[in-house]
Sequence to fold (887 residues):
Amino acid sequence: MTDLVIIGGGPAGMSAAVAAYEAGIRDILILERDNSLGGILQQCIHNGFGLHKFGQELTGPEYAWKYEEKVKELNIPYKLNTMVLDITSDKVITATNATDGVFCIQAKAVILAMGCRERSKGALNIPGSRPAGIYSAGTAQKLVNMKGYMPGKNVVILGSGDIGLIMARRMTLEGAKVHAVCELMPYSGGLARNIEQCLNDFNIPLKLSHTVTKIHGKGRVEAVTISKVDENRKPIPGTEEFIPCDTLLLSVGLIPENELSKSADVTLDRITGGAVVDQNRQTSAEGIFACGNVLHVHDLVDFVSDEAEIAGKAAADYINGRVDEKTNVTIKTDGKVRYTVPQVITSKKDVTVYFRVADVFRNAKITVSGNGEVLLSKKKPKLAPGEMESIKLKKELFENCSEITFALEV
Amino acid sequence: MFDAVVIGAGVVGAMAARELTKNGMKVCVLERENDVAMGATKANSAIVHAGFDAKEGSLKAELNVKGSVMMEQVAKELGVKYKRNGSLVIGFNEEDKKTVEELYERGTKNGVKNLEVIDRARLKEIEPNIGDGAICALYAPTGAIICPYELTLAAIGNAMDNGAELKCNFEVSAIEKTDNGYKVYSGEDFVEAEIVINAAGLYSDTIASMIGDNSFKVTPRRGEYILLDRECGNLTSHTIFRTPSKMGKGILVSPTVDGNLLTGPTSVNIEDKEDKDTTAEGFAHIIKETFENVNNVPFNKTITSFCGLRAAGDTGDFIITSPSKGFINLAGIESPGLSASPAIAKKVTDMLKEQGYTLEENKDFNPIREPMHGFKDLSVEEKNEIIKKDKTFGRIICRCETVTEGEILRAIRTNPRPSDLDGVKRRTRAQMGRCQGGFCSPYIMELLAKENNISIEEVTKSGSGSIMITGKTKDAQ
Fold:
């Protein structure tokens, strides 16, 4: 029996471990599938991490090292190159690695911190051939930054997610020519600072409302056809543009990796793709918590660390049998607000609710209402799907509600 | 000098090569691509048809019914997954109902066992997600599913383990008749054999014409498919066909032996034998008909889409002929070719015997091949037994399909050895899951480079020209 098993040794897993340790838990085990702690941060060698958390601009590996150092200093045990194969709802974890073989652990509490994966080309049904030279932006990033290999020389990028933007700059710095970044939506899903620093500074055109409508090439990509799309995101005939290139990078969305959560019968949120959680980041399965990109995709790793601290501390409380005064408030959204995390509030204490909006909105008012009246409202000059928002709710505010709604007035 | 040369390492060529090897022949298989199973075999519906479809008296009918019966045993010997999941041909109106009844009659005449015409109530009972518009169905409990490239890899591998040779990247350019057989050329290179089996799929007409046989023509028929995530594989348990019309068999929905859900194919005759492009119209057609067949198919769980070219002959039937002694055409082997393939192989040996060749059973022939994947389905104890001997089986490389390093290395070292990423994918399922190799392909590239003693720049996705890496970064240079 182990008190706390954390699945994933990336930024979420490590800060959850440290938080649980600081809350008094000593019997912790982190299971990490890669050959080092740090997760995806290890390949994010650009800077911009840690502004909120540490007040300085760090690279991904530097940010990861801050936590790795702590994990090592506190002697928190971890196993590398270890893949978790299964988690049951009563918290039995089956994992495998080359030294221990396949083994099982019964945990008192589990924190899910597996991160996310990129949506693949397959999911997009792009017509044309299936040559080599089509990579997700993250795979390209791994090849360039971790392995020293160039995946191509003449590049078109589909999707303007942050990894795509970062890779546009990275490939350019390595001598490749990035011909265009195409974005299906009329706005970019990436951070404003990345559009400025990764595209505009290098004169890389961002083509909004454009998509790739055909892939050409037998062995290797030889060209792509891109087209403008209408307001229903359907390609407009006659707008085709043929771009010769040898590489197509995809940055078309991230998907929380919840296959293990499903094996543990954790209820998932259709919108976030992650677990439905309460303010403690506890899932529908008692004693199983989730944090980081496996719960919902974050823009900044700093917020991942914050969230993981909540989960780590809550898991410690759970193991120690500490409970808050209970309530049960469901948080609904109006669609303009796409989702919130947490989705339920189960204890009577102040809570910060994180949320994302579904479109770009200007001069909008966020309202939180319950029992037919507006409990709280806040004006925002600009809201965009790419930037996560948050609102702090005092416990008095939702005390008498069984349901509250996050909505947007525009 | 070989006894027999088989041109084409698709399922038809592979099964023929194995059968000939079993019958004591020294066989060489010639394949123009970088790997086996690269033509229609790679991209089809993966169905072992019961045999009610083909017209009674045709070769298609005879060999389908025979092959379908033989397939279970063949799959068992070759360690290939095979599942008799049963198939349904659903009808949406009175006209369809008549077709369903005709198929029942035809199937019964063809010798298909246990066919049944069922009403909506029964249909709904055995297939709860069946489309709301379906009113009746032909139920064929002997219909089955199999993975066509897994079968082909295993058949070629087993033939090779028993002495057969495989030459990839050998595109036949000419055939010369000699005193005691044939000389088969690829440019300057050639292979000599007494017997030539033409199993060249789309190009079997070209091959036949090399010895002056211009009696048939093969047309590529485009078939596009959409494959869904394994979490959708239990949406239906049977293979669901529509009633065939003048426009073809229509779109089917079927679970695969590996647990995915397969939808397709479109059916369009085209000119270009190399044009495997998917199309927006094709996708729209698949999605529309799938929604009629089965309720709530979640296309947002698509993991890949692909296009296969079926080798459609111009006679309406399989073209199994011998234009010259020792030369056998296995042409126009479109659906139900996969189902018929064990019976076609048997027919080849029968034809050769009739032509006076002596075929003697190879007493040393071992028909058994160990399954190449499925490690993940073993018990914890069985896994640990293997990991104790070989640590690489403890290390997962492909997360989505839980494929270990040990399985990948084993596949790279086993006949027929893969030399590219897609080859590893078809043998192990690594890169075939929901992330489509996003995480594991860089590792597999390195394993391939190391095992095959080539540089990473030489690793390809799928043979010639399909390089993965164009060079090193500035720092690495």
About this structure: The CA atoms of residues 47 and 66 of chain B lie 15 Å apart. Chain B has three domains: 1-82+146-218+313-371, 87-141+222-310, 375-458.
